[in-house]
TrEMBL record:
Source organism of the structure: Victivallis vadensis
Record key words, sorted: Signal
Highest taxon above the source species: Bacteria
Signal peptide: 1-18
Protein name: Beta-galactosidase-like protein
InterPro entries per record: GH
């Protein structure tokens, strides 16, 4: 008898077009929906209606100070700038006027933030065929184009069409009213290239310093001088601004646990961080770092030009070096920021789950609060992996990026945070933000982002997601915002311990154990996702990668044929992020076979491209199974911990004899 097992078979919702088409407003040309903009007059009518709706919105000065701090009747010390303070066992931000403040922010408020631009031209220099109608005229819509005319911003052009030639000031006024009416009190981060300083905000910058891979080398002789030049200029613009909460330097570029391996593989002899690592190992091995590499007695100068491996180096030593490197990085930057602006908070780098806990540990003493990013409704990183450490450190943190998306209107389906409807996005917002507010260590959240990313993907990478509270034509997602407003009205009291957070709800399409899909699989953890292929990488991968065994096959699951030679057909549908296309597929996905589910041997696989897009979907199948095979095991290889989302499993199809 033949049976077919569909594993996580929701790939239909995730069909990705290789070249999504957009109309002259930047909307998907392939779909229609109620209220889709087809004429400029529609946007102007929307502006009149919404302006009237928000006409009476203004700060409530009886309840709040001018920075959004809550007047509790028990004022705290007013220093003229934002600070952090622990009150009755809970951490809070405190406004310049001395009132407690729980950050409720939105990221990337400025419409000219680089994530709102998309590539305007193809590789030959002509306007992209993805634009089914004329692109915005650069002579008329100047702010809609990058200086080199390689990137275009449909959002900026739409704002001009909607608000008129003086659109920036009119947009600023309406945006402030929108954010206040939705319950937000901060512009959070990504306030580039201009600051939306009508609300408290954060400033973030990427450092122009020497790197290896994407990681900063804090041991480079020129690091401090280069950083000082940039920090001095940064602080000169913002010092004394009471609406600035603090500075964040670097975004999700903290060292992963693979950083020492990358350093040791380098044979250029030029990486200062490699020299520092070898010196660190020498101090802990009787002055002979070569012992770890079967090169006993070799001087550091020689080892600097050799390709080395971490296999024989105790993991605790590698972890210790990451802590040391992070401590150096954060101490130098804190010193520079406080030298040129002693009044504002220093957040250091932002951190995400692809980084090592050791990097966060090394910087915690230098920062005023820890900046975290997490894209997971269940918060398995912050309230799982990090929870014990955060409590041990007793350090306040803020979640400055989180989001929930929908795959309709032509958007990509590659995020682990997809829910079924716009209303569900609002409910997910409530669940996540209230869960965070209930944590005594959390001082606030910043939602990523105000507007959707371009359907044709943002210009500097392939992200094309429905992250926004507002679409590209400046129309708010009202169904989502109902949940957002409900949450924001409660967050201060939830954090104060006066209200309980709302409970988790089954928003997404699947909630089962992985064992139900992959018998005998190692992944027995319950998951919940309407894009369940990402379960394997977002949950199991975090667990698999915790021992930093990068480049080693990690078993996802085992399929049982039920009897020897029982497979008639076996296919795995796997995704690979398209920027990894230069690697062999077998570097990422591997099959093994076994007769007894104990002893496994490699089973060569063949791959067929099934669907193109930001994630390329392949059908993977064993080339030929040996006689007697009953079990086939699928493994992923974590080659790049800086991109843990690069690979995922979508579906398994089995026909048994």
């Amino acid at each position: 008898m033949k049976t077919i097992l569909h594993c996580l078979a929701l790939t239909a919702c995730c069909a990705l077009s290789a070249a999504p088409k957009v109309d002259r407003y930047g909307q998907s040309a392939a779909e229609n929906w109620p209220g889709k903009i087809t004429r400029d007059a529609q946007m102007r009518a929307e502006l009149e209606r919404e302006s009237a709706e928000l006409a009476d919105v203004k700060p409530d000065m009886e309840r709040f100070d001018r920075f959004g701090g809550v007047k509790t009747g028990k004022p705290l010390a007013a220093t003229g700038f934002f600070r952090v303070q622990k009150i009755d066992g809970r951490w809070w931000l405190v406004t310049p006027e001395g009132n407690p403040f729980y950050l409720k922010g939105v990221d990337a408020v400025p419409y000219t933030e680089r994530g709102y631009f998309t590539a305007a031209r193809d590789s030959g220099g002509t306007i992209r065929k993805a634009f089914t109608q004329a692109a915005p005229d650069p002579a008329k819509y100047l702010e809609a184009w990058s200086k080199d005319k390689k990137l275009v911003n449909f959002l900026a052009a739409n704002l001009y069409k909607k608000y008129g030639p003086d659109f920036r000031e009119r947009w600023m006024e309406l945006t402030e009213k929108r954010l206040r009416s939705w319950g937000f009190n901060s512009a959070a981060k990504w306030n580039n290239p201009f600051h939306f300083d009508r609300l408290p905000f954060l400033h973030d910058e990427q450092l122009r310093v020497k790197r290896f891979d994407r990681f900063i080398d804090p041991y480079d002789p020129g690091f401090e001088a280069a950083a000082e030049t940039q920090v001095k200029a940064m602080c000169a613009k913002l010092r004394g601004n009471p609406y600035l909460i603090g500075y964040q330097l670097e975004n999700e570029n903290g060292w992963g646990r693979n950083a020492p391996a990358i350093l040791l593989r380098d044979s250029s002899g030029k990486l200062a961080a490699k020299r520092a690592l070898l010196e660190y190992l020498a101090e802990r091995n009787g002055g002979d770092p070569g012992k770890f590499f079967d090169r006993s007695g070799a001087p550091i100068e020689t080892l600097m030009t050799e390709t080395l491996a971490t296999a024989a180096v105790p993991p605790e030593l590698l972890d210790g070096f990451i802590v040391q490197a992070s401590r150096r990085y954060h101490e130098i930057l804190r010193g520079l920021v406080k030298k040129y602006d002693p009044d504002h908070l220093f957040l250091g780098a932002s951190h995400c789950s692809s980084q090592s806990v050791e990097w966060i540990d090394g910087g915690r003493e230098s920062v005023d609060l820890i900046a975290l990013h997490e894209y997971d409704l269940d918060s398995r990183w912050i309230h799982g992996t990090l929870a014990g450490k955060l409590r041990e450190w007793d350090k306040p943190f803020a979640v400055l990026e989180f989001s929930f998306t929908n795959h309709r209107r032509g958007f990509a389906c590659g995020s682990s945070t997809v829910v079924k409807t716009e209303a569900d996005r609002g409910t997910a917002f409530r669940i996540y933000t209230e869960k965070m507010a209930a944590d005594p260590l959390c001082v606030g959240t910043g939602y990523f982002i105000l507007y959707d990313q371009p359907v044709t993907s943002r210009g500097h990478d392939a992200e094309a997601y429905n992250f926004g509270l507002i679409d590209v034509t400046d129309r708010p997602y009202r169904e989502m915002l109902a949940g957002v407003k409900a949450a924001n009205a409660r967050l201060f009291d939830v954090h104060a311990g006066k209200l309980e957070p709302i409970p988790m709800q089954p928003l997404r399409a699947v909630k089962r154990s992985l064992r139900e899909f992959l018998p005998e699989s190692v992944g027995a953890v319950t998951f919940d996702s309407s894009n369940p292929q990402f379960h394997h990488n977002r949950l199991d991968r975090v667990r698999f990668g915790s021992n930093a065994r990068f480049g080693v096959p990690l078993a996802v699951g085992t399929i049982d044929a039920g009897k020897p030679d029982g497979f008639e057909k076996l296919e795995f549908y796997v995704f690979l992020w398209k920027t990894e296309k230069n690697r062999n597929l077998s570097d990422w996905f591997q099959l093994e076979e076994s007769a007894d589910n104990v002893t496994f041997s490699p089973a060569p696989a063949v791959f067929r491209l099934h669907r193109d897009g930001p994630f390329r979907e392949y059908v993977m199948a064993p080339q030929a199974l040996k006689p007697g095979t009953r079990f086939v095991r699928l493994s992923f290889v974590l080659n790049d911990p800086a991109a843990p989302w690069a690979t995922s499993l979508a579906e398994v199809k089995v026909e048994r004899r």
